[in-house]
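note to self: dont lose this again. the chain is below, predicted strucutre after it. 393 aa total, dont forget to put it in the shared folder this time
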Amino acid sequence: MPTTRGWAALGVSTALLVLWVGFGETELMTTAMFLVAAVAVGMLFIRFADPRVEITRHIYPAQVHEGDEVVVEVDVTTARRVRNLEIVDTVHGLGVARFAAATTTPGQPLLARYEVLCRARGVYQVGPAEISVSDAFALAERRNRTGTQDRLTVYPRIERFTGFPAVRGLDPSVQSTRPTFAPHGGEDFFTLREYQTGDDLRRVHWPSTAKRGELMIKQLEVPWQARALVLLDTRAERYPTDEAFEQAVRGAASAATHLYKGGFSPELWAAERVPGLRSGSRFQQAMDMLATITTTPHLDLRSTVSRLRRQGVGGGALVIVTGIPDDGVLAAYRVLAKDFTRTVVMAVGDRTTDGAGIFQRSGAVSVMVGPDSNWGPAWRTAMELSWSTASVG
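---
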């Protein structure tokens, strides 16, 4: 079909024909017919210019966090000679990349590369690419989509934390090192259960699987003090701005990652429960959920955590991540804290509010930051203060 330039040429030719009728100048008619012929020849050219393009896309790195850059490589191969080839690849929500090739030969590999700045967490669709071929004067073009549609998952930004909560079985004076338990090795056999999505296939008990005809997993008993729960408060009412909620999501992701790498066996609750992040697949599942989590209006947090407690939670560390603390968070803390040795409350809000003091007086470790602050320094300070308190007591 005609391009914008082609439609403009047809409009000019129509005006010239009108002038020719009025003034009778042969040059006006000749110019008008030339423009019409040029557009017609261009449309005839693209009618038989089937590009037959194959596109393969690669995204590096595979895991990316907000604020990072990814490199997208587009491999292009044509089955015939193509002129004036243009490729448009779109990362929906982040940007558009355009590439052009004057001439291609059959089987000639072409490589296009562009970078994308991942401004915010989320799941973004990449492609399919749009291929267009035009005539020499760009008066007519032919467009079609080709290639696959890929997915780019941007995880929350992870901050580096230092120190762990002082849990039972650990000496607070050495909290700058890793915990002394080892939940990733030396666990005792507990029971057999059916396979669930995300389970580590190395835990499959093959004799029982062969006998029952379905995958059976060896459930290993985790040391009690190695267990942890990271709970993200998703109530929309507790976050005055979108950035405050984004800060809370970053805090939950950072805390879960820190505990996971530090030897704990954390679970995550954020609208739904992701138990046992000991395996890489479960940890990946938790990060995928945090990449797309949104606030929930009118959520009854107390009843939610009551149901969560009935499912069986407990262990060494409880981390509650919220916005401006209120009675709902305090009630949730009182319901869950009795099953954990140590509780850390991470809050996004004004440091002058009394919410942090309420939890401190209740025995919890309080970490409070503003929407534009960093969690790392506040976490480290809170952990050091908690160790000093534990050592004195």
